[in-house]
Amino acid sequence: MNWISEVVRPRIKTLFKKETPENLWIKCPETGQMVFHKDVEANSWVIPGSNHHLRVDATQRLKMTFDSGTWIDVPLPEVTIDPLKFRDEKRYIDRLKDARAKTGQMDAFKIGYGRVEELPMTVAVQDFGFMGGSLGMAAGEAFIKGVTTAIEKKTPFVLFAASGGARMQEGVLSLMQMPRTTVAVRQLKAARLPYIVVLTNPTTGGVTASYAMLGDVHLAEPGALIGFAGPRVIEQTIREKLPDGFQRAEYLKEHGMVDMVVHRHDLKATIARLCRLLTKAPPPAKAA
Amino acid sequence: MRSYLDFEKPVAELEAKVEELRALGERSQAVGIADDVARLEAKAAAALKDLYANLTPWQKTQVARHPQRPHFVDYCAGLITEFTPLAGDRAFGEDEAIVGGFGRFRGEPVCVIGHEKGATTEARIRHNFGMAKPEGYRKAVRLMELADRFELPVISFVDTAGAYPGIEAEERGQAEAIARSTEACLALGAPNVAVIIGEGGSGGAIAIATANKVLMLEHAIYSVISPEGAASILWRDSTRAQDAATSMKITAQDLLKLGIIDAVVPEPVGGAHRDPQAAIAATGEAIAHALAELGNMGPSELRSHRADKFLEIGRKL
């Protein structure tokens, strides 16, 4: 390692980066079609043409959902970090640090309070980008906090679910989030506030097997993978190839687990309409 | 015929010698054989006691899955009189991976629900190795709602590797069935006690283990994913199950410390499979004690006791 490489190289790197950003073009995972980054962004991260719904992070999701893209962040409770001092190939605490640095979030949940088509609303978003949206103690507490906020402010509660399942690095403490979040869902129901779940790609494991399947209404984004066991686990168990479209949003609707498969462009209006109907709120001015 | 686990080899050898000597003693009149038998027997017993006092989490996993370990049907036979199993979810079918019904525990009517793994090949297939499908959980919901209406306590026995991961289970809404079953536990206005008797495998376990009191047998395990599953996902190597078992804190002793379970039920030396009757009797005592503690609470008190208990988990670590 000599002084030249230390001084000169970084400058060249930044120069190159500016000229060729890696994400200028996006390849559609379904059709392989190349689309311009800006077009996809302007289309709420849905590939124009194929209508493939790309994953969005929590902040983008809140922006798309709340009126004029503004909301108040609900502060989330702190939890004990790495209670089991877990390490696999890497220490859990390091994985957490990496995820925090990468996303700028403390954990997989983000919760906002604001207005959706003028209706006050509490919206919780699970970010798959943060350790696969996994359900650990922080996520469990965040969900409970979201529900408590909705009850305090007497608003509907909307959940955008996305998760690979339980956070294994927290052992049974992560499993305990299933009954804990279910306690919260029951409180919401007792308060007679609508609970709308939007299942996004992917929602599996302990999240589906608890609060994500207990909504008053289940919406799903097109093509989202939704299930209890992941497709790989099922394939290994039964040693058969899985049918086309298995565990996709449309399949779940066909099997009675989802009320509607809704294009991302129509989600906001659908959520607002459902909440207005359930809470006997008047129709929006233009429709009246 | 007793089947030994790999780590029980030293004990197995001692016990084989005892048997050999005993057979020899019966055939010949040689002096001192009886003394030798007694001495060796004591040695074997001591070795077994030592071994079981310090089982590793992975060894406990093997004990929890021991083929001769008492299963739900054994507990039911030993603790419940007039047991009347009920079948079906009234929607799709009957799933024998979860057995449930009504009977009397110490003379009082109760609802009993549990995973059954089966003891013979035929029974294992019939009970799908204790891995329930949605209809199993929906039957559990049905029974819990019935118990609630008649204010009968619910006793559940948990022993499953996990809910069944298959096409038809997904098709019929495995996730929703588990979530509803957990919710039904929380909605009970009657007391419920869950006992982890063998394997408490993930969501498939919690669906009937969300109870006012959660008890666990001394060598049972309770975890968010099987050690093998965690090893293949986190280590990308299923042979690291031993490490996963240790890291995940799945033993009754660890879970008591973490405040996840309420009590540990002692097992006979050498595990429940060495003396099923003793293990079942100890479990009965523990259930009676737990029910007595909940005895004076009314429906709303029981619901908030349960909700608060689960909300507190993890908040004071």
Order of helices and strands of chain A: HEEHHEHEEHEHHEEHHEH
**CATH class category name of the largest domain in chain B:** Alpha Beta
Number of helices of chain B: 14
Give the topology string of chain B: H per helix, E per strand.
HHHHEEEHHEHHEHEEHHHEHH
Structural class of chain B: alpha/beta
Overall average pLDDT of chain A = 91
Straight-line distance between termini of chain A = 72 Å
Strand residue content of chain B:
15-25%
Name the chain pair with the biggest interface and residue counts per chain.
Answer: A-B, 52 and 50 residues
**Biggest β-sheet of chain A: count, sense, barrel?**
7 strands, mixed
What is the overall pLDDT average of chain B? 95
Radius of gyration of chain B: 21 Å
- CATH topology heading of the largest domain in chain B: 2-enoyl-CoA Hydratase, Chain A, domain 1
Distance between the terminal alpha carbons of chain B, to the nearest Å? 45 Å
Annotated CATH homologous superfamily of the largest domain in chain A: 2-enoyl-CoA Hydratase, Chain A, domain 1
Count of all domains of chain A? 2
The tally of beta strands of chain B, per DSSP, is 8
**Architecture per CATH nomenclature, i.e. the level-2 architecture of the largest domain in chain B:** Alpha-Beta Complex
